[in-house]
Amino acid sequence: MLLSGEAILTVSAEEGSWISALLPVGALLGAPITGKIADTIGRKYTLLSQGILLLLSWILILTGESVYLLYVARLLAGISVGVSTSVSPMYISEIAEEDLKGSLCSYTQLMLVSGVLYGYAVGAFFSYRTMAILCELIPIVFLLSFVGAPESPVYSLWLGRRREAERSLARLRGGSDRILGELVSLEYKFVLKTGALCVSLMACQQFSGINVVIFYCTAIFTEAGGGLVAPGYASLMVGATQVLASYFSTVLLHHVGRKPLLIASSSLMGISLMILGAYFNQKSYAASMPWLYWVPLIVVNLYVAAFSLGLGAVPFVVLGEILPAETKGVVSGLSVAVNWATAFVVVKSFDSLNTALGSDWTYWIFGILCVIMTLFFKMCMVETRGKSLETIREELSSDYRSTGYVGI
Asked: Membrane-spanning residues where (predicted)?
């Protein structure tokens, strides 16, 4: 909207790239301090704080008449995203029962892509101001609905507030008598490999190029040409595919291990990007390719579906499954900081790579990275589905004793 002149403010391509890239910068700023904040004021009030930041961001987008106010708005939104993607899996994993933890943590990704779809939808059918107002409603609804939620019982126990923790768990479990066992099972000494696993998964998530496709989705279809579907509607289809795939991932995570999902996801993503690169390579030699115009639409949808089914959801699930309470705040913050740092690098460098190497080699590079990730997951990833924290710790320790490897 900003680049096309539909908004009250028109920006240049360079300003547009900064508006896109400043969201991961904000997330990078917010994520490192999130763990300390969550450990100081609690998981609940940290999440409420990020809702306020997101609301302020949309107010600035609605009222701002300067590109610099948009920069500030995107930074605030990024900080909010950095906080929420760090604390949400932390909070969910601390309140969820063992058999539901994986699927519930995966809803972090489902909600993210649902927000993307919501943004695509209101952007396609409403004016700039109306879009901002409709998006502003999301943090308002969140704040009103979440203010009555209980604090994490694990956090309360960590502060020595056992009675408060018991009340929270009783509310969450309907008077379950497994309160003590649940809390004890979450407490064990920090193992370096769990932190390395979380950081590595978050870095892989962004080096797959997902935010390039999300942020530049309409531009990709515009460059691809063909005219089979208008770029805006093609982007809307991609957003819908993300939401559907993210929903199915919550089902798959009940029945399929984390490791197979990561391997399948990165493999399909790599294949999709290789095909997309080949399309742009052929397009550079042929003025018209009507028999191939369907390729970008199919492979981009396949790419985002593969991401949502595995690499999008699994890192957040694993983040909630393997970290003990005493290190969860620090490691979650660090992991999400790495996630958004790599997101900034990837998003900001995309335009330069595209200009220097061409679209074909740019997508091939991301495809190669996905292939490398597939090998990495195959050799180094541990399975966490259906396992307690103690079991995962023992397996990680066993792997270390047998291999001497301190990574993953």
From this structure: 45-62, 104-126, 138-158, 196-221, 233-254, 261-280, 292-318, 330-349, 361-380
